[in-house]
Design a protein that fits this description.
Layout lengths: L4 H6 L2 E2 L2 E2 L4 H10 L4 E3 L7 H8 L1 H11 L5 E6 L6 E2 L9 E6 L1 H14 L5 E7 H4 L3 H4 L10 E7 L3 E5 L4 E8 L2 E6 L37 H7 L1 E5 L4 E4 L4 E6 L4 E8 L9 H11 L5 H17 L21 H15 L2
Parallel strand pairs: 1-12, 2-3, 5-9
Antiparallel strand pairs: 3-13, 4-6, 4-7, 7-8, 8-15, 9-14, 10-13, 10-15, 11-12, 11-14
Length: 343
């Protein structure tokens, strides 16, 4: 049975808030964080935030002054939709993806806002440096020695299903309002994930409708709620979401802009764990149980435990990929996998 929207979020704990006075204090908080936290007003002085506080149209005009003349990828929901970018009844996407220049896209959002049309129009994960000139220089967070990817998310009132990301994330509300609902990584089994290959944006998403959870179909979601936290962010506020924490994101205003920063503590030349999981589904998941037990032991031995006994009996110069990874050995592994997969 579905429960009311307000009741769901009222039952969740609030994401903790911290106060930071400068970049050094933010750096310390990020280094120490093992769970999400909110910083109110972190980017309140951004010119983009100030434009958005005046009006959605002023925020759109500000973006247009900095945009590059190139096509943007836009997700567009069905007319009269409720902003949820998800699957349809046949498990295809309930939105279409098109290309458009930013002036035309924002003009369409102008018209939808004037008519009160709730149709989803969403520009997701747009690289700030590739698609805008000067926007980053005037509106950015000092993250010290980190080398993050800076992305901007622009759209109407949308709902993005719970998912997780591999990098750490600092998300800053530049216009409109956002509600984030987060869950620890161990709530994987209670979020009822959908396919890992047929996804709206590359990551498996929760099949639970957070606005109206069906507890008959998803009874374990009640347990997830015991561990969930939620927060509504105003323009200038920011939230840090550590790597692999689940997060459900809603744009609550008719027009919303988010700027986020992703970074990894591990080198970029390391592979993505998701790729290993997908390959394991191909090679291991459907083996007989006794063989799966063997490969589980192999993964523990070589990957998860990776103790000294793995290589202590092998001369250092002969350990090859069993030695500590380097950019060169990572490249050899990739080349080996490409040869193997192409057979």
């Amino acid at each position: 049975m579905a429960e009311a929207d307000a009741g769901i979020f009222a039952q969740l704990a609030s994401v903790p808030e911290v106060i930071v006075a400068d970049a050094a204090q933010l750096d310390a908080q990020l280094r120490a964080a093992t769970a999400p936290f909110v910083v109110r007003g972190l980017v309140k002085d951004w010119p983009l935030v100030q434009a958005g506080l005046r009006s959605g149209r002023d925020a759109r005009d500000y973006l247009l002054r900095h945009r590059r003349d190139r096509p943007f990828t836009v997700s567009v929901g069905a007319p009269g939709g409720d902003g949820r970018l998800f699957y349809d009844a046949a498990m295809a996407m309930n939105f279409v993806t098109v290309q458009g220049k930013l002036p035309e896209v924002l003009a369409d959002i102008d018209k939808l806002e004037a008519k009160g049309d709730p149709r989803a129009v969403y520009l997701g994960s747009v690289d700030v440096h590739d698609y805008f000139d000067g926007l980053h220089q005037a509106n950015h967070v000092d993250l010290g020695e980190r080398k993050p990817m800076a992305s901007i998310w622009i759209g109407t009132a949308t709902r993005i299903a719970a998912h997780n990301d591999f990098p750490d994330n600092l998300a800053c509300v530049a216009a409109g309002r956002r509600r984030f609902t987060v869950f620890p990584p161990d709530q994987l089994r209670n979020l009822y994930l959908g396919p890992i290959d047929n996804t709206p944006a590359g990551r498996a998403i929760s099949m639970v409708d957070f606005r109206a959870p069906d507890f008959d179909a998803h009874p374990r979601f009640r347990e997830a709620m015991r561990h969930g936290q939620t927060v509504e962010l105003e323009p200038g506020d920011a939230i840090h979401i550590p790597s692999i924490w689940w997060h459900h994101v809603e744009g609550l205003a008719p027009f919303n802009i988010l700027v986020n920063y992703w970074w990894r503590d591990t080198p970029r030349w390391m592979g993505l764990p998701q790729d290993a999981l997908t390959f394991a589904m191909l090679a291991i998941r459907d083996l007989p149980e006794d063989e799966k037990r063997h490969w589980r032991d192999m993964f523990d031995y070589y990957v998860f435990e990776n103790g000294d006994e793995v290589v202590s009996h092998i001369p250092p110069e002969a350990r090859s990929v069993l030695a500590q990874l380097t950019p060169e050995s990572a490249g050899r592994i990739r080349a080996y996998l490409l040869r193997t997969l192409s057979r």
